[in-house]
Amino acid sequence: MLYTATGSVKLKSCSDFKVVQLYSVPFGLNSVVYIKQKAMKGIMEKIAIKRINMVGNVFNYCDSTNRVWLEHELVWQADALPLAIAYWEDLERKILAQPCI
Questions:
Q1: pLDDT digits (tens, 9 = 90+) for 17-72
Q2: Residues 96/88, Cβ–Cβ less than 8 Å
Q3: Residue 22: what pLDDT?
Q4: 66 within a domain of the structure (yes/no)
Q5: 32 phi-psi bin (left φ>0, alpha ψ -120 to 50, beta other)
Q6: What is the pLDDT of residues 57-72, one digit of tens each?
Q7: Which of 2, 45, 57, 61 has the most CB atoms less than 10 A away?
Q8: Which of 37, 64, 60 lies closest to 48 in space, CA to CA?
Q9: DSSP string computed for 30-76
Q10: What gap in Å lies between CA 35 and CA 56, rounded to an integer?
């Protein structure tokens, strides 16, 4: 899994500085990712991440429609596509296993 670093360090002068913690997150700003739950149902719905928030030690992602997502709810396309294909293959297997009337 690819992780993207986020954070900053602000320096004002030689004697005044502020250190901000840097964190690595799997999805960066403007990343296009897919909803894992929908991919598991065979639907490839993508969202664009517009903001990353940190609440306690948990990161959440805000998309372009201002919906908030947790990290485990999102996947890259490379992970979503096999989930969707597995759903459709399983559905096809169930349909073909039914006896014809």
A1: 667 777 888 999 999 999 999 999 999 999 999 999 988 888 999 999 999 999 99
A2: no
A3: 79
A4: yes
A5: beta
A6: 889 999 999 999 999 9
A7: 61
A8: 64
A9: T-EEEEHHHHTTT---EEEEEEEEEETTEEEEEETT--EEEGGGEE-
A10: 23
Whether 61 maps to a domain, the answer reads yes
Q: Is 63 inside a domain boundary?
A: yes
Answer whether 76's CB lies under 8 Å from 49's CB.
no
Residue that has been written with the tokens 């169930």 in this structure: 94
In a domain, 23, yes or no: no
Q: How far apart are CA 68 and CA 58, in angstroms?
A: 12
Domain count, the chain: 1
Check which CATH number belongs to the domain holding 61 and give it: 2.30.30
C-alpha 81/C-alpha 42 separation (Å) is 9
Q: Provide the β-strand partners of residue 54.
A: 59
pLDDT (average), residues 11-21? 64
Provide the domain limits for residue 61. Answer: 28-97
